[in-house]
Amino acid sequence: MVDSAPLNASVSDLHQLLKDRAISSEELTNAFLKRIDQLNGQLNAVVTVCPEQAIADARRADEQLSRGDAHILTGIPLLHKDIFCTRGVRTTCGSRMLEDFIPAYDATVVAKLKAAGMVMLGKCNMDEFAMGSSNETSFFGAVKNPWDPNCVPGGSSGGSAAALAAGMAPLVTGTDTGGSIRQPASLCGVTGLKPTYGRVSRLGIIAFASSLDQAGPMARSAADCAHMLTAMAGLDAGDSTSADRAVPDFFSELTGDVDGLRIGIPREYFNDDLNPEVRERIMSALTQLEKAGALLVDIELPHSHYAIATYYVLAPAEASANLARYDGVRFGYRCDNPSDLEDLYLRSRSEGFGEEVQRRILVGTYALSAGFYDAYFNKAQQVRRVISEDFHKAFQSVDVIAGPSAPGVAFPFGAKQQDPVAMYMEDIYTLAVNLAGLPGLSAPAGLINGMPVGLQLIGKAFDESTILNAAHRLQLDTDWHEARPALEDSLA
Amino acid sequence: MTWETVMGLEVHLQLATQSKIFSGSSTQFGAPPNAQANAVDLGMPGMLPVLNEKAVRFAVKFGLGIGARIGERSIFDRKNYFYPDLPKGYQISQFFSPIVCEGVFEVPMGDGSLLPIRITRAHLEEDAGKSVHDIFTQESGIDLNRAGTPLLEIVTEPDFRSADEAVAYLKALHSLVTYLGISDGNMAEGSMRCDINISLRQKGSDALGTRTEIKNVNSFRFVERAIHSEVERQADILDSGGTITQETRLYDAERDETRSMRSKEVANDYRYFPEPDLLPIDIDQNYIDAVRASLPELPAAKRARFHNDYQLSEYDAALLVPDHALAAFFEEVATLSGAAKPAANWILGDLAGALNRAELTIEESPISAEGLAGLIMRIEDGTLSSKLAKQVFDGLWQAQGTADEIIAARGLKQVSDSGQLEQMVDDVIAANPDQVAQYLAADEPKRKKLSGFFVGQIMKASQGQANPKLLNELLINKLNNQS
After folding, report:
1. Quick one: which of A15, B108, B219, B286 is 20 to 30 A from A181 by CA?
2. Looking at residue A489, what is its pLDDT?
3. In this structure, is residue A345 part of a structural domain?
4. Do residues B349 and B285 share a domain?
5. Measuring CA to CA, how many Å separate B379 from each of A447, B21, B366, B389, B409?
6. What DSSP element (H or E) covers B284?
7. pLDDT at B388 over 60
8. Per residue in B445-473, pLDDT tens?
9. Number of domains in chain B
10. B9 and B150 housed in the same domain
11. Among A25, A95, A156, A348, which one carries the catalytic annotation?
12. Stretch A241-254: mean pLDDT, rounded?
């Protein structure tokens, strides 16, 4: 009889259990499906559960495990953010526009993890079209933070982060355009990695801002993220922007050795605007790494304060084009009884898209309009290069850059909903990393009043190994990543 | 008022790639609606474009073919507008940095001169699908087979002053792209569509007038007629003191008039910005050199060579060269027969006429190059009179065998034997004493005319087989020696 222990086990432990046939993938899958069934009513983290398919996949994995030719991830269940297209399984992107959209294809990431033998349990709730930092923009209702159901889980991969924190799956996928993996990972107390732009194929991921979007793993530890990233990453002929770079076995690169590792502390991230309690948690995490041999180095990222403005020109501009295909003509939501073509467009889009999505389409359209292009889009492109240059310079003297993942802990529902700019500030520490195309991760760094705080580690392009290793070291020396919300009480 | 017409042309050239510019779907013409539209062409969520390298190669070929500069780094942009047959809500095009930059294209005119036309740019883009309004009663259909077909949009400076110049340019362009093998040039299927920007100005003025743009004209003849009718319309307005509205117009071939399509008042703001899903195209000198080395002989070089090597007139060369197959046919006939000028005459004369009547192309000609060369050789060596040659030509057309076989079967071999000819001359002189007397009484110029009677009689008697040159010599000699 399997108790609840495997629900919290690491990838390595799960693999051992599965390989030894101490547990079957089918049993494991059923345990997680049961967990989803028990908790999703209160958390709303999962929008689509696919039990039949999951069991079928699990049985196939069990056969493979019995044959002894299993991959490290074979038979391990996962949840996908509902932005990844899944063949035959509804893919909503958190929007009414795609409420009934069933793709005929798998995203490359989905196909790769399927090929590795993973079992898809279902699809996670998210901010509509990944636009949001609180998961309140989902057409399917907000996701609740497992640490406090009155608080947001962060966004846009809030469903993924919450499901993970609540033990609904050992691994989940997320995407990060401006912080959408790292900020919810921070608010839900899990580890999430946004890889270097181009490291993971974007094919089959519903586009928000194409030059910024990047998919990555979310897990309960850096080690588990490493296993998953290895399976997700790689050149894809179907994505021209995917990188032709060798993919290491990220797990085997986790030596735990941080001796001499130079960690840059940007003064711009630790100025007076930073919440003192967050600062204290971040500094204590960095002190841990220092004790393990790392060197803390003061650095500057002088153009950091332009990141929000730059991002909120470029991302909406790209989104305004990416979301033009949702016109009610070929797929997706179509309004009732359109009187003519104009009416079809207007009402399908007005009724199919939520407020935040419409806001960003309008902002983006404006930024690209004749007469404004140079002042907004072009200028933002230039500033983007300047911000990249900041990182490039900083990385000449350090190996990793550290800071908070978010300005604070999870906030109550509605707290920032009426103030878009306050909401946009949630990503103040993460946006620049997307603009520069660099890898960044968020790892738990303790709690403030019972709510998780995340440490952000930023790496050089294609050097995910170094930030994963630093996080791994931290997770060898502390138990912050093992903290779990007290959900068991509510299950009793 | 005397008006000068000023025109610039934009040609949308469909590139003859097997698959689309950003997806693996076939570009074959004529499939059932949407049979050639995959998830990328449909603009499905999460789909991404992947550039077809062949389209790039074709564009570079074109650029080198017109002697234009190739953009070292060209970039795709999104051109944003809503239309039901535009699946993504944007067209992937090149706005800021096109693949082919400025160049000058020398267009051969009917009089043998060359008209230099400045090419502004040529850029790669994807075609849209098409809306179908005549299948359903209440709704329109969308056919996305054409969506994503690679196009090269070729833009000129306003260098045209007449419809003739515009048509000559289009014909030369058509010839060039078929030589390069980058387009099938099939205008009826939309492989080459032309937008014409037209304005008028007072003769002698340097300023440009307000222009209209006639969209999507798809034959040389319609281009000519559309220009004439639009020039006339604008001149009428200007003559009566009116002003031209800048707008897009369509040419209605049935009514032979242009009419307003949309006014620029509601002009689209296309909000171009760099396409983030595609990398820039970087083209280095090695690539350019390799493409250049693969270029075939182009029309201009071929015209010059036909003129120099075969001593053809500019006029004949200009007629033979534009159609690649026709030029090749000529070269084969000229080489096999060793008689270039007669080869050109036969091809541009009797053969072209026969093909035209039968509505056949040179590729479909019932007479092969070898067959025609056989005929010409028999004329050149005196076996066949040019008069009887027409009969052999007809025999060849009807596939009755080689020229030699037809000559033998029909007994068309020319009589050049002087003994035989002498006998014929003697016979006709003996049979027509009155005419001989008349001949002898006439003065020299009149005699020439009268000799024709005797030639005619002999040709009749010999069924045209008498060698006319030898016959003439013998006849005059004999007549003059009568007494």
Report:
1. A15
2. 57
3. no
4. no
5. 105, 53, 20, 7, 17
6. none
7. yes
8. 888 888 888 888 888 887 777 887 788 88
9. 3
10. yes
11. A156
12. 98
Task: Look at the block and give the residue holding tokens 């006849």.
Answer: B475
DSSP string covering A188-223 = HT-EEEEPPTTSS--TTBPPSSTTT--EEEEESSHH
B→A interface, C-beta within 8 Å: 39, 42-51, 78, 80, 82, 84, 87-90, 142, 269, 271-273, 276-279
Quick one: pLDDT at residue A134?
A: 96
Query: Which among B53, B54, B19, B15 has a CA at the least distance from the CA of B36?
Result: B19
Res B437 pLDDT > 90: no
Can you give the CATH number for the domain in which A95 is found?
Answer: 3.90.1300.10
Q: Which residues of B touch A209 (CB under 8 A)?
A: 276
Q: What is the mean pLDDT of residues A155-184?
A: 98
| Segment among A273-277, B60-64, B78-82, B85-89 with least mean pLDDT | A273-277
CB–CB of B46 and A85 under 8 A? Answer: yes
Q: Does A491 touch chain B (CB under 8 A)?
A: no
Q: Can you tell me the mean pLDDT for B131-158?
A: 93
Overall domain count for chain A: 1
Measured in angstroms, the CA of A241 and the nearest CA of chain B are apart by 6
Distance (Å, whole) CA A48 – CA A69: 30
**Cα distance between residue B183 and residue B201, in whole Å:** 35
Catalytic annotation present for A320: no
Q: What is the CATH number of the domain that holds B443?
A: 1.10.10.410
Domain that holds residue B213: 3-289
In a domain, A457, yes or no: yes
- Average the pLDDT over each of A97-101, A343-347, B440-444 and give the range with the smallest value: B440-444
pLDDT at B265 over 60: no
Of residues A84, A211, A239, nearest to B48 (C-beta): A239
Q: For the segment B194-206, what is each residue's pLDDT rounded down to a tens digit? A: 999 999 999 989 9
Q: Which tens digits make up the pLDDT trace of B25-47?
A: 999 988 999 999 999 999 999 99
Q: For the whole model, what pTM was predicted?
A: 0.91
The helix or strand, by DSSP H or E, that contains position A356, with its residue range, turns out to be helix A355-368
Q: In what order do the strands lie in the sheet with A215-219?
A: A46-49, A119-124, A77-81, A171-175, A215-219, A191-194, A440-448, A451-459, A400-404, A262-266, A295-299
Do B318 and B392 lie in a common domain? yes
Q: Are B274 and B335 members of one domain? A: no
Decide which of B384, B410, B436 is a domain's last residue: B410
Token pair 């699990």 is found at A58
Measure in Å the smallest separation between the Cα of A138 and chain B Cα atoms. 18
CB pairs under 8 A between A and B: 98
The amino acid present at A136, given as its one-letter code, is E
Same domain, B269 and B301: no
Q: Is residue B103 domain-shared with residue B232, that is, in the same domain? A: yes
In chain B, the residue whose alpha carbon lies closest to the alpha carbon of A209 is B276
Q: Which of B410, B433, B465 corresponds to the end of one domain?
A: B410
pLDDT at A1 over 50: no
- Sorting pLDDT into bands at 50, 70 and 90, what band is A28? very high
Mean residue pLDDT of chain A comes to 96
Q: Are residues B406 and B445 in the same domain?
A: no
Q: Identify all chain A residues contacting B48, using CB atoms and an 8 Å cutoff.
A: 202-203, 238-240
Place of tokens 């935040």: A356
Domain that holds residue A185: 5-264+282-300+393-491
- Picking from A345, A368, A372 by the largest number of B CB atoms within 10 A of its own CB, the best residue to mutate is A368
* Cβ pair B84:A329 closer than 8 A: yes
More confident residue, A27 or B140: A27
Q: How far is A254 from chain B (nearest CA, A)?
A: 33
Query: Could you confirm whether A156 is annotated as catalytic?
Result: yes
Residue B415 has pLDDT above 80, yes or no: no
Is A81 a catalytic site residue? yes
Q: Please check whether residue A452 lies inside any domain of the structure.
A: yes
Within 8 A of B142 by CB-CB distance, chain A residues are 329-330
Q: Are residues B133 and B235 in the same domain?
A: yes
* B267 CA: distance to closest CA in chain A (Å): 11
Q: State percent of chain A over pLDDT 90.
A: 93
Could you tell me where the DSSP H helices lie in A395-452? 420-424, 431-436
- In this predicted structure, what is the pLDDT of residue A109? 98
Chain-centroid distance, C-alpha A351? 27
Could you tell me how many residues make up chain A? Answer: 492
